[in-house]
Amino acid sequence: MSQLYELSEVAQQNGKNGKPCWLIIKGNVYDVTKFLAEHPGGSDALLEYGGKDATKAFKKAGHSSDAEKDMKNYKIGEINSAEPIQIQPTSIAATKPVENTISGDPEPAKKSSSGFCCC
Ligand code: HEM
């Protein structure tokens, strides 16, 4: 299984202040730090998207199938797209406990032999 990264993790690797330059393209994470100087489209094009999703820009640049193959060399993982599990408070917990609405003394138990079988 491929390494999963959070968006916030990728965002930190923006190529600035000596940090690595990571990009997201189609849900995959690429470390293009070593590719910056070699990129035919220039390093600025990559740095502009450092730490961000560059899917649209990548498509817009009309990359060749060779470029798509080349990408694999820089892939380091994928974006963890799983939504965090949201635990909603249940309505039961939010409602008041059911109170005993019977006011006054409960009716005393009827002591009657009728209907009572002792045999
Ligand atoms: C891992 C990511 C990338 C790889 C491996 C890559 C690779 C390449 C390659 C091999 C070329 C030469 C032309 C071709 O074969 O299509 C190219 C050109 C180009 N790339 Fe990228 N690229 C990447 C990301 C990006 C991004 C994010 C942009 C953002 C704008 C971009 C913009 C360009 C442009 C504008 C050209 C055309 C340069 C020209 O023809 O003058 N590339 N890229």
Q: How do the helices and strands line up, and which of them pair or pack?
A:
Layout: E1 4-5, H1 7-12, E2 22-25, E3 28-31, H2 43-47, H3 55-60, H4 65-71, E4 75-79, H5 91-94
Bound molecules: protoporphyrin IX containing FE.
Observed structural traits:
binds protoporphyrin IX containing FE, 24% helix, four-stranded mixed β-sheet, metal-binding, Cytochrome b5, Cyt_B5-like_heme/steroid_sf, 119 residues, 4 strands, Flavocytochrome B2, Chain A, domain 1, alpha+beta
Summed up:
By secondary structure, the chain is of the alpha+beta class. The protein has helices at 7-12, 43-47, 55-60, 65-71, 91-94, and strands at residues 4-5, 22-25, 28-31, 75-79.
What integer value in Å does the Rg equal? Answer: 33 Å
Question: What's the count of strands?
Answer: 4
Largest sheet: 4 strands, mixed
Average pLDDT for all residues: 85
How many angstroms separate the termini?
Answer: 75 Å
What structural class do you assign from the helix and strand content?
Answer: alpha+beta
Subunit arrangement of the protein? single chain
Give the overall form: elongated
Proportion of residues in β-strands:
5-15%
How many individual helices?
A: 5
At the first level of CATH, the class of the domain at 4-79 is Alpha Beta
* Poorly predicted residue ranges: none
State the fourth-level CATH superfamily of the domain at 4-79.
Cytochrome b5-like heme/steroid binding domain
Helical proportion, percent range: 10-25%
CATH topology of the domain at 4-79: Flavocytochrome B2, Chain A, domain 1
CATH architecture of the domain at 4-79: Roll
Bound molecules: protoporphyrin IX containing FE
N-to-C order of helices and strands: EHEEHHHEH
Strand order of the largest sheet: 1-4-3-2
Organism: Drosophila rhopaloa (Fruit fly)
Keywords: Heme, Iron, Membrane, Metal-binding, Transmembrane
Subcellular location: Membrane
GO cellular component, one term: membrane
